[in-house]
Amino acid sequence: MSEQDTARTTTTAVLATAIEDTNYNYHAEQIDYISENTYSLSYIDHLELRTRTRNFDLNEQSYRFRAYTNFPKERKLNQTYKDKSLDEARLQGKEKLNNALEYRYKLIISMIKNERVLQGKLALNELLEDRITILKKLANNLDFDYQDLLDAENDYQKLQIDLVDLENNLKQSSWEVSQLLGVNDKVYLDREDMISVEQIALFVNSFDKEIATDNFYYAQQIVDIELAELEYEQKKASAKTPLKFLEASYRDDFNEGFQKDFSLGLGLKIPIGSAVKGSLNERVIKIAKEKNKLDDVKYELHEGISETLTVLEVLFAKHRLLSRFLEEDNEEESLKKYQAIEGISPLVLLKVKENIIKKRQVLFDVEKEIFSSYLEFLDLQGLLVRSPVVNYLSSKNDLVF
């Protein structure tokens, strides 16, 4: 990949494009619209004008004007419900932003780790080509085992298929990152400050297993409970409001004076039936259901985090073991040791190099699993969108936005 057709960028720059995600922005625009175009509950709920004809004579009319009221407590609860509904919508927006960030994290992890795997497989490809070349030269020897050549060619063919898949995956990842950044060139991600496996281990082990109240998965369900409770309070306040309406009436009677034609009245509500109780019971049941859902959310988050930590613990142990093996099998030292043996076959030296590369490949695979499980941990903890949003792939926790 030449410098001319490569655009260098950082993981932070890629993550920062999440704020431009279409789904997130559309939802944010909807919230702004609702916030600006919803109204507070007025003191007057609605007005009603009635007219009645007496004795089928249009000249004998009676008029009645009613104003249905909303008491201060009803108005206050309505405003609280509106504000809480907006909180719910904002948390839904947070979830969309979380999804956008998670997608970009997965893209970055796949791209960086697959590049390392590809480099190793390309080195292995060269060694297999050398092994096949040497085996073909030895084919005329009487003690030559053609199975060795067949195995080498099979390994080579399998590797070619793996390379096609890897190169295609990298090409697709690079294209997707380019689209996010709005560039036409291939993208190279700077990994100078990339967090190490050791730093990930320290980070995840420093966390309390308790679910934080600002975890947006938890906060969403808390808001649902609060909305259900507000619905109950609204219905209860409406049922307890004694004044139903205020009324002014006028009876057009030529035989009476204006004072007798005109009258004022009010309507009082006497809640003796079961309709209101039934409606309140429904809301009590809804509150109980929402609280049960909160218990389910807490349980699922606890189980998910616990399971992820268990997986990470095993992966960290594998990574330490493989790192130690590679340190002990130092490539230069191993080659020097075998090259010092008189009459050593070049096939043995190639096999030493292959073994070291294969161990590195296994290490890279384990690292990719660690980063993927680390991302899952961040998501379950609600950290991806915790304000301020930072880059958890950076050892410096660079600010994203």
Write the SSE topology:
Elements lengths: L5 E5 H6 L5 H16 L6 E11 L2 E13 L2 H66 L8 H36 L4 E5 L6 H9 L10 H25 L2 E9 L6 H4 E7 L6 H54 L2 H9 L6 H35 L21
Parallel strand pairs: 1-4
Antiparallel strand pairs: 2-3, 3-5, 5-6
Helix pairs in contact: 2-3, 3-4, 3-6, 3-10, 5-8, 6-8, 8-10, 9-10
Question: What are its keywords?
Answer:
65% helix; 10 helices; 401 residues
Can you walk through the features of this model?
The chain has 401 residues and is an alpha+beta fold. It has helices at 11-16, 22-37, 72-137, 146-181, 197-205, 216-240, 258-261, 275-328, 331-339, 346-380, and strands spanning 6-10, 44-54, 57-69, 186-190, 243-251, 262-268. The chain has a four-stranded antiparallel sheet. It has a two-stranded parallel sheet with strand order 1-4. Strand 2 (44-54) and strand 3 form a beta hairpin. The radius of gyration is 36 Å and the shape is elongated. The model has no long low-confidence stretch (mean pLDDT 87).
Summarize the structure.
The protein has helices spanning 11-16, 22-37, 72-137, 146-181, 197-205, 216-240, 258-261, 275-328, 331-339, 346-380; strands spanning 6-10, 44-54, 57-69, 186-190, 243-251, 262-268. The chain is an alpha+beta fold and 401 residues long.
Content-based structural category? alpha+beta
Q: Give the % helix.
A: 55-70%
Strand runs, count = 6
Runs in which pLDDT lies below 50 for 5 or more consecutive residues are none
